[in-house]
Design goal:
The chain contains three helices and four strands; from the N terminus they run H-E-E-E-E-H-H. By secondary structure, it is α+β, with helices and mostly antiparallel strands. The protein has a four-stranded antiparallel beta sheet with strand order 1-2-3-4, with helices on one face. Helix 2 packs antiparallel against helix 3. The protein binds zinc ion. Zinc ion binds next to loops. Zinc ion (ZN) binds next to loops. Pfam families: Auto_anti-p27 (PF06677).
Length: 117
């Protein structure tokens, strides 16, 4: 266990190294957290990096969802294009090819929508 003096010393060291003291406290030892110039957050009490797992994961999830929506939009556009082309062609080979890509696009779209909900 670290003493208060140790923690204060460590905090002062961090400040000298260009770190800033945050308003947030360590969930384990209640010591104010410090943010290093590199962006890392450390706790001088526990002497370790503090990772805000929850917000990180939220952000990741949000990004993922945004990507999925973009992809979904693209897929819908492609599907519309193929449908339009299909209505204009009478070539069976061409129709067959389009039907195949349409089916895989729809399949992908279904998977995406499933993932989102
Ligand atoms: Zn701590």
């Amino acid at each position: 266990m670290k003493t208060r003096d140790d923690v204060a010393k460590k905090g002062a060291e961090l400040l000298r190294a260009g770190a800033t003291m945050l308003q947030t406290h360590c969930p384990d030892c209640k010591t104010p957290l410090f943010q290093l110039s590199s962006g890392e957050v450390v706790c001088p009490g526990c002497d370790r990096k503090v990772v805000f797992v929850k917000s990180d994961e939220d952000e990741k999830e949000l990004l993922e969802l945004m990507k999925v929506s973009e992809l979904e939009e693209d897929l819908v556009k492609k599907i519309d294009q193929i449908k339009e082309k299909m209505s204009k062609t009478d070539d069976p080979a061409e129709l067959d090819k389009m039907a195949k890509s349409l089916s895989s696009l729809l399949d992908l779209l279904g998977k995406l929508r499933h993932k989102k909900s």
